[in-house]
Amino acid sequence: MKIACLGGGPAGLYFAISAKLxxxxxxxxxIERNRPDDTFGWGVVLSDETLQNIxxxxxxxxxxxxxxxxxxxDIAVHYRGQRVLSTGHGFCGIGRRKLLTLLQxxxxxxxxxxxxxxxVESAAPFAAAHDLVVAADGLNSRVRAEFAQHFKPxxxxxxxxxxxxGTRQKFDDAFTFIFEETEDxxxxxxxxxxxxxxxxxxxxxxxxxxxxxxxxxxxxxESIATCERVFANYLGGHALMSNARHLRGSAWLNFPRVLxxxxxxxxxxxxGDAAASAHFSIGSGTKLAMESAISMADYLHSExxxxxxxxxxxxxxxxxxxxxxxxxxxxxxxxxxxxxYLHLDPVQFNYSLLTRSQRISHENxxxxxxxxxxxxxxxxxxxxxxxxxxxxxxMFAPFRLRDLTVKNRIVVSPMxxxxxxxxxxxxxxxxxxxxxxxxxxxxxxxxxxCVSPEGRISPGCTGMYAPEHEAAWQRIVDFVHAxxxxxxxxxxxxxxxxxxxxLGWEEMDAPLKEGNWPVMAASDVPWSPRNQxxxxxxRGDMDRVRDQFVAATMMAERAGFDMLELHCAHGYLLSSxxxxxxxxxxxxxxxxxxxxxxxxxxxxxxxxxxxPPHKPISVRISANDWAGGAGIQPQDAVEIARMLQEAxxxxxxxxxxxxxxxARPVYGRMFQTPFSDRIRNETGMATIAVGNIxxxxxxxxxxxxxxxxxxxxxxxxxxxPYWTLHAAAAFNDPDEGWPAPYYPGRDQLYRLAAxxxxxxxxx
Length: 763
Ligand SMILES: Cc1cc2nc3c(=O)[nH]c(=O)nc-3n(C[C@H](O)[C@H](O)[C@H](O)COP(=O)(O)OP(=O)(O)OC[C@H]3O[C@@H](n4cnc5c(N)ncnc54)[C@H](O)[C@@H]3O)c2cc1C
Ligand SMILES: Cc1cc2nc3c(=O)[nH]c(=O)nc-3n(C[C@H](O)[C@H](O)[C@H](O)COP(=O)(O)O)c2cc1C
Fold this sequence. Notes:
By secondary structure, this protein is of the alpha/beta class. 39% of the residues lie in helices and 19% in strands. The structure holds flavin-adenine dinucleotide and flavin mononucleotide.
């Protein structure tokens, strides 16, 4: 087969090698614009896993690469005058130039033709003259642009500015991150050794800082001199060096995240950065390029037709590429938003940095560096006021809000049971909440409990508007207080436009088959074309509903609840004021966000006035309508939280969505946690994270990284009321209290957990 590889980077060269290894009769030519030894950049990082893949593919080049590796295990973070070191991370680095030289040598040995200093203007003549054209022409691929209508690329130019420099200063003991605060803003470096003499030194900062420094107007020399001044304390008198003289201007770049809908067209296939890019902060670009080269060479060999090989290659690689791109996106987003985290204590900042891609979990960090993680856990416990000296997971640290102390960070999220009779909780609720309170969570929320009969979502919803409701709730609260050390929070709400609908397991949000009652909302916008058109509330309605919230608050206090939550999320009445998707009012309660918040804040202030000063109140919000610019977006949620904080709300319960049928949520593990993270770290307000958090590991990493103060689990608590106690047993943590009658069950569970077994329902 006659093959042309356009571009002599890792993808093009390694594909040429891999194809030749599988069939030496292939006629392979690599066409590269640069000379053999002039390459931009400095060192690249490869993982152990990639090395194994390379070894299996071609032991010869793998040995040569290994011989030239610089290895290191530690990550050092310089921040606020401290150097925090953690170990067990296992990296190896190699000079990019060295890597390419080794690959060029190996390619030559195998009979690959290398044509340097040849600019590819168009792939078309190569496609006509070859059986296969591998477009490996890098991030700014000309071939991808030439056939853009077929490859359908999507390029997202990211916010930070970076410049890829080198230095003779030694960073051979650790992969080093340096965060420096300057008059012009924060600027940071990623530094790692890649051969005996040289280290990579990538400098990065926000666009705003870059502008303030005036980097855009500087020559490369001036830029470098400025970076040398900024990082002088770390450079030991060594210079910073550029080898990007071929780039115009100051050589600062923005990283483009590239995705392509298709990776092949006729006999042309995209590979490496040309097909998909992964941000340098997770050091995976070279890995992706080389592993894709192996995969394509395999299929070229195993499949009967070129098209079949392309299909298999794309199918095989796309998932891995998306996985890494997702980690890379988390990582680059962390750096883009790093100024949000620069108030954190160095311990927490370091943890946040290490877990930024969300590929490294809490327990994985323990495997890497137990003593560092235990130090961080001890720090967390001390911050929570615990000084027992015993190291415990963050989820088992107490938390205080006003005079309320919850024993740990696990919260049973509010979950409608649809089991009430005329708003009155029944024995179902007693058993349900009683079980969850016995199950170890520090705080149990009751379901959205409605302030009036017409404020119920469904006929099965609980209320707080009649004396018998208060009495029935008091029975439940008394049980929780008498038999457990959990605290219990009353969530109060009004269904608004989503009222008069069916039970959760019937047709959710659909109107009742019969017996509908009139509904109201901020504006007369129905939930869906099938739902009733709500009455747009007038001032009289607003006064009445506010007073209903006040009356319900007083009942919740008399019933003995420890905490109150106002439900301002999920499209219900108060939420219908906040989101512009449903608030079309033209009075002072519509229009700007401040106006839309006016009524929910009025209700909060009225409730706060009658709720005892020593007890906290939280507010649940939808931090994202998932409807783009038309609805609430995470940045608006920060403003909402600021207004709540100023009004005296103690903690923001950060949910998202369910405010409109137009929503297009992006689900995933912990998918709403970024909103909590943002609110907590931009406003300083305490937050609760919720949404697809189901492993103890998720909880610990959220807490330890400072992404929330409490963590709500909803569905996991339906499946297992004893979720927290099972987690404690799995960690062999003996300090979570069990109800005395259950001690034999506890002892068996701990014994089994210690042997690595479970009773079949462990978390
Ligand atoms: C700052 C920075 C740090 C990085 N750090 C790491 C790291 O630590 N680990 C890691 O794995 N990856 C890292 N990468 C990414 C890595 O460099 C790339 O992902 C990897 O090189 C991709 O290989 P490639 O062969 O697809 O593209 P490239 O390496 O870009 O190779 C493409 C080649 O095509 C040539 N070319 C382009 N257009 C033409 C044309 N029209 N005619 C002829 N030749 C052409 C180019 O000269 C180049 O040699 C980093 C990238 C950056 C920007
Ligand atoms: C059956 C059920 C009922 C729910 N009822 C409420 C509710 O009354 N109030 C509320 O704020 N959220 C309610 N939610 C949302 C949950 O509190 C939680 O935010 C959501 O389920 C995401 O958490 P999870 O992924 O842990 O389940 C309910 C969820 C479920 C599954």
